[in-house]
């Protein structure tokens, strides 16, 4: 697995002086081969249909008009070279995400880094409903879209990060393109904008025979390799925090229909029905002292959400222009924004909540928010969520597990105190109608009582339901006996009065014995019920105490981390204050030498005015 980590090192940060500008071809080819290895190392989605047996499911190409209309395909590509396929074990099993975080069912993976710069994340999926031609044009146009639009940090972005300035561009025949870009993005809320300097390599001729193992032609594809860049023309901008991201992103068709020659079948579009495989491997650092564990906490869900944002934008466009369709507008916009973006007076207000932004930067903002909600004290997390999601309702309609448990206990108690239904001894024992009426009444009570049974699936709820069933069986037997005795009594009415009196005494004795037996059985059942309720309450109380202790311990540790961070920031501020005071003293000394005390007084007067 060291081969994979060595490959990931190749997409790390680079200085502009180390880029071999006079010999870009071999260097770029090597990076694209590295990107191929990295993408092939990501496991394919589970299940699916073998390549030889797969068929497209869409009747026409590009039928999807939004991400909701794009479907996951069961088609799977040809297995890559064994050297690449053997690396898939390094990613382990997919990260578990709920349906809300991952509505498209994308396979997301996490792998610990070996260079102490954080974990790597990957996603892989196969789509139908959008062609590879449209996907490629969309990815080529993505940064050009924002370069042609003026505004604040990240203006015109498609997936969260927008292009501010193109620092350099090189095109190498039969290899690909290299762009050095100055990018920016804006966190939601009153936070400092982020700046990313990236060296972006793109190619539709990046794959080798290791993808198809010489069994098939190399499929159409498009690869983007992004490396953090240090460039001499991008000094630190005031009002921005520098972040970094490393990534490899690739789209690749599964060629169920081969691409026809230009001279043959020019009007045939079957090849545009081919499913599209989309793979991304990334790692990011938003800068600004945000703890790494907070970023990594929310990255998987944000990576999954990234897909919908891009597909909504790409599918909604009927005809996507080429990347350089408006070069003059891009240059003009970059020149007009140069002064405005150099020193922003204040961060502009966020136009969207963090959850609505997509792309790599959305994974950063989503990761930060998820980390805050998971690790910050409840009051801080609630404030942050309300700020970043003002449209959310403060109340949640779903119940927590604790409230569900409490409802179960309340239901059990209500059922315990429900009227048990006494034997109808107040009616004349010799009146069958009264006995039947009493039986019907008690049956109604049992029916009503059964509706209040706790419907939980815990062992205690099951035991309570079992007790109620046993009680219902006992009462059914008793009332059946009562009915039989009442019928016998009615049949003796036509006989001798002495026989009736004897039978009445016998009947009363039998009913008394039956009542005592019933009361004894019910007392046992009620005792068992009380025991189960008490046991469940005790268990829940212990769990609540344990949860509270864990929460307090976690908050304590978080506050300690915050205190350490504030101490470090305080130390940095003290150092900056010392430097400013020293610079101020030097300036005052020079002003005294050049213009005298009078000039210094004039400056103070102008400042105070």
Automatic annotation (TrEMBL):
Biased composition (Basic and acidic residues): 417-430
Region (Disordered): 38-70, 321-357, 387-431, 444-466
Ranges of biased composition (kind: Low complexity): 332-344, 396-411
Comp. bias (Polar residues): 444-455
Domain DUF3074: 120-314
Pfam families according to UniProt: DUF3074 (PF11274)
InterPro entries: DUF3074, START-like_dom_sf
Name assigned to this protein: DUF3074 domain-containing protein
Species of provenance: Aureobasidium subglaciale (strain EXF-2481) (Aureobasidium pullulans var. subglaciale)
